[in-house]
Amino acid sequence: MRISTKAAANIASTALFVSAAAVTLGATTADAATTCNQTSTATKQDVSTLGVTMNYSKTVQSASIGVGTTVEYTIVVGTTGIGNPYVNQIVDYPPAGFGAPTSAKVTAFHVGGGQVTENVTPTVSGAGWAVNSTGWFVNSGNPVTLVIDYTLPMNTVASDVTSGGISVGGTAGVGTSLPGLTSCFGARINNPGEAITGSANAGGFGSGTNGLSSTGSVSDQIIQIIKTSLS
Question: Which residues form the signal peptide (predicted)?
Fold first, then answer.
């Protein structure tokens, strides 16, 4: 059976893809042994909080994110008390090298409306990006939540990416600076075989299980490529 030049080229490229995939999967497994936490939490209870505990958290949406796609951080400011601290500023500190946020929204309690989500426009605040208000109400059942999006720069190498922390301004002891409230994820580069097989995610190469999702596998992709090339 003769194999066309095009088929031979596709099969050769597939071999390169398999080799690269093996390297990528091995690197992912090795990285799993290191500490890269998607979520950090912190509390504050001192004389300024009047016996009430303030709670803070920061989370990134995925453990693995591809370059050029969205990185989304969720920051939550809450309290265990029934008092009424007001948050008037949240500053997010993204990883070094990130550009301006692409979008941001705040969910907070509004009298007569309950929890309401609104788009907000971040402004530069030192090395971070701030969202401001005349006062977002906080109590034990109504935290303030900021969701802020960035684009993962295309020149990011495949490695762990750790953000900076946050700072919060407001009344009744809610204000604080938390540089250690970070979030971490693994950045993914594009697979060499994507030019042949299409999007790695669409072909079953996801970000959850060492580069493979339940919808596909390396062997499935190879078999399909060879069948197509020989047809």
Answer: 1-32
Full-model pTM: 0.70
Residues 26, 57 within the same domain: no
* 3-state DSSP assignment of residue 18: helix
> Are residues 222 and 126 located together in one domain of the fold?
no
Query: In this predicted structure, what is the pLDDT of residue 51?
Result: 83
Give yes or no: residues 170 and 84 share one domain.
Answer: yes
DSSP state letter for 102: S
Separation CA 182–CA 66 (nearest Å): 19
Range of the domain at 120: 39-182
Tokens 């493979």: give the residue. 212
Whether 16 and 113 share a structural domain: no
Crossing angle for the helix pair 218-230 and 5-31, to the nearest 10 degrees: 170
Beta-bridge partners for 103:
149
Radius of gyration of the chain from its Cα atoms, rounded to whole angstroms: 23
